[in-house]
Structures
1.
Amino acid sequence: MDELMASLRAVAEPTRLRLLSLCADSELTVSELTQILGQSQPRVSRHLKLMVEAGLLAKFREGIWSFYGLATTGAGAQLSSRLLELIVQDDPVVKRDLARLEEIKQARAEEAASYFRANAAHWNEIRSLYVDEADVEAHLLNLAGDQPIDQFLDIGTGTGRILQIFAPHVRHGLGVDLSREMLAIARATLEKHRLRHCQVRQADMYNLPMAPESADFITIHQVLHFADSPAAAVTEAARVLKPGGRMAVVDFAPHDLEHLREKRAHRRLGFADEEIESWCTTAGLEVLPTHHLAGTPLTVSIWQARRPGPTLN
Ligand SMILES: C[S@@+](CC[C@H](N)C(=O)[O-])C[C@H]1O[C@@H](n2cnc3c(N)ncnc32)[C@H](O)[C@@H]1O
């Protein structure tokens, strides 16, 4: 009862209801919210602080920025979703807020697209060295099976492509990456396709901001060849895998394209099956069959592992 009263008090104010409706649409920074509401930053920050304390909104940091979105657990989260049903979407103030939000999203998407364009040539160059990416994605989805996935995690999500293709099959999806620029593209993509059940967060794959045994299915797609310590990344991924949960690591089989190291910052020129399999076993996982998609000159491998436990889906 106390928790509910605190949440009700925290939201009983016009600006806070507007904040609720905006954060239900997208995860937004204080400066974006300030721009939309036309109020001073300290004032907006104070509203947000109270709403986070009351469990209505969740705050998460990305470098020096903080993002605000709807809370997903607790009494405050339940109250938010009930209130949102009652907020009238054609109210002139709500409509104006959402129109301004749309302008901000468009500006974000343009910024992300220009970063993507600047780097696209490098990415395309690497893609041309192996089998069609669509084949890899279809294979990966096929391995995941046809049962819905409850909590999906994509480590090193980059532009969020894997998150996007898994989205129709998951109840909740999270992509993590270190790069702000990549995450900006991922966010724009999720927004464009209105994938509200999927989010991205800035996080280090060696120190995931997640509880142990919280993910049902994890993907690490074309990330480990950049890693200083791929074994540690696999161990950290295994930590957050639920009993019965599965992980798929996609990367190159061993190759000798040294220029990828010099020009494209690859640390590892592919991985042998035994190497990845031994990291999985050491991390307490059972190894499942590996698949190889032979290309010229690079072969893509999909290694799979499972945390022992009852089947999840
Ligand atoms: C080649 S991209 C692959 C992106 C995505 N998985 C895909 O296949 O489209 C590699 C990604 O790994 C991310 N990355 C590298 N080191 C990382 C780390 N320590 N923690 C999280 N992400 C990392 C990079 O920022 C980059 O976005």
2.
Amino acid sequence: MSQLLQTIETPDDLKKLSVDQLPQLCDELRHFIIEQMSHAPGHFAASLGVVELTVAIHYVFDTPYDKLVWDVGHQAYGHKILTGRREAFRFNRKLNGISGFPNIFESDYDAFGVGHSSTSISAALGMAIAARLSGEKDRHVVAVIGDGALTGGEAFEALNNMASASPDMLVILNDNNMAIDKVTGGMSQYLLDISTSGFYNRIRNKLSQYLDRKNDSATGNNSFITKLTNSLKNLVNHQTNIFEGLNIRYFGPTDGHDVKYLVSILRDLKRIKGPKMLHVITVKGKGFKAAEQDPTKWHAVGRSFDPETGEPLSPPSNEPHPPLYQDVFGETILELAKQNDKILGITPAMPSGCSLNIMMREMPGRCFSLVNWSPLI
Ligand SMILES: Cc1ncc(C[n+]2csc(CCOP(=O)(O)OP(=O)(O)O)c2C)c(N)n1
């Protein structure tokens, strides 16, 4: 039973829990999402992957005064449940129910109305600058963006602007190595490289442990320790970190499922001024075996399923049913492409979602993923 979750109407209730209780709350929240989604389908795997992150952010930051901006927004179910919409979540995506995405008209906790994708850093940058101009120096601004959404052009534009505006804001990069389909391209390879470089990460961890032992006053942006750490980081990091190169302090990569550790990191980051990025590694569909194994299939679910096994509850009927809209598109584009070799297929990193995978299977060299412009071969 959800003993802790049912005591939480808003993040103020969450803050009454001890840090040691947070893993249990995460289990309950994850279970609640699975249970609800099993009979009221919608986006699924992405929210499961950010349960710990969601709990840690609301535990550490003072939302809604502090601004929390989700990027594609389909991972914000946990956020909705912890911010006054636990019961309303039963009517998620239903007529007269709540929206499946953050919506500024629905709740003060939804700082930015989002759909898809790559807008969060720009929006958060605007909020951070507005806070600075209006003298609200204590207001924190946090953007959460996935590695898929980070490949969008507007996200790069925002990182570029962060470098010059130097706002007090935190970007949390939720890296599950997935968009709707598998992420490919230069940025995803880069993130993998910095996540897996053992030597670099060992040195970085030692440095951050050293930093942790220092008192709060030593962790300011201009402190000697901070400057020393940056110099050492540059020394050990032969390839310059792309984010550090843009004047954004980079922290991580770290385990995005260790809620207690996330809380301690976020508390530390809260005290550090300037533009920062925390890179967390998560598993899309975390805690639900079928979704962990096939996150693309479980990105969004269309039918009720058994919350234990993932098996569909209503077997597909033998009755003839109309084809899916996207399959009509997929079959048609393939048919046309066979007749006209000038036709190419382009998708925003979601070949399965728009059924371009039908053409992709037969003509991989003529299909492109918009987000990274690589042929789908
Ligand atoms: C401008 C734009 N580009 C691309 C897409 C297709 N798209 C939808 S969600 C998404 C990214 C999802 O991946 P990520 O941000 O990593 O979130 P996750 O689902 O993995 O949590 C993409 C590329 C879109 N909807 N709009």
